[in-house]
Amino acid sequence: MPSGKRFVSPFDEMRHKLVDHLRSKGITDKLVLKAIDTVPRERFVPQAIRARSYEDTALPIDDRQTISQPYTVAFMTQALLPTQGMRVLEVGTGSGYQSAVLSAIGCTVVSIERLPRLSHQARTILTKFGYNVACRIGDGTIGWREGAPYDGIIVTAGAPDVPEPLARQLAIGGRMVVPVGTQSEQTLYRVTRTAEENWRVEDLGPFKFVPLIGVEGWTDEQ
Ligand code: SAM
Questions:
Q1: DSSP assignment, residue 196?
Q2: Could you tell me how many helices (H) and strands (E) the chain has, helices first?
């Protein structure tokens, strides 16, 4: 560029404003805020609604699923107490945005999605933008044993109960953030594995997610 100035897109400005908004809503973790300030959410949102990428709201993606609300992504990621190098399993890749945020923090991420089309689309975008995420297709309610134990597990769909296989794939000291409740509303839990056979459960408040479907989740009614 002749002037040597970097092109600043309107999305960059919107992203900075979103970070200010998240800060005003109580998100304080510097790693989380910095990651959200760098990940281009507009690339994970369908083209037709790209202009809405920085609204603090969930948006529809393919296969009747959603990209979670930015506040929810920030809150769940902060609740995981993320650190660089942490091994994290995400259940519910969806658009790939949440896994990009974890990768931008410096976590080593495996992300499972049950719907192949979403997984393929997410993998393409994550690869294009250089996020190092291992995308897997399958039923994440039983976890991904090949990568276990995990320092963190983040479940981005609502479960009827805490999936036991996931609790058992946590390392001692590892944390899982998981919404549990009915198909329409859930309570977000942080489950910390404190010993081989002991888990501490904390209530982090009400949230709403699409259902977690699988052997340790809800039945697919389609
Ligand atoms: N984390 C996503 C993002 O950043 O866009 C949002 C995920 S969306 C709210 C929930 C996702 O969980 C959907 O894509 C859905 O297909 C997926 N899902 C539901 N049950 C699942 C299961 N048993 N295993 C893996 N993915 C599942």
A1: T
A2: 6, 9
Domain containing residue 68: CATH number: 3.40.50.150
Range of the structural domain that residue 128 is part of: 10-207
The answer to whether residue 212 is domain-embedded is: no
Instruction: Tell me if 40 is assigned to some domain.
Output: yes
Task: Indicate whether residue 76 lines ligand 1 (CB < 6 A).
Answer: no
In tens, the pLDDT along 176-207 reads 999 999 999 999 999 999 999 999 999 999 99
44 in any annotated domain: yes
- Rounded to whole angstroms, the Cα distance separating 138 from 79 reads 25
CA of 212 to the centre of ligand 1 (A): 7
* Domains identified in the chain, total number: 1
Angstrom CA distances, 119 to 17, 29, 61, 102, 106, stand at 29, 28, 12, 17, 21
In the reported structure, the alpha carbon of residue 6 is separated from the centroid of ligand 1 by a whole-number distance in angstroms of: 36
Predicted model pTM: 0.96
CA–CA distance, 97 with 112 (Å, rounded to integer): 13
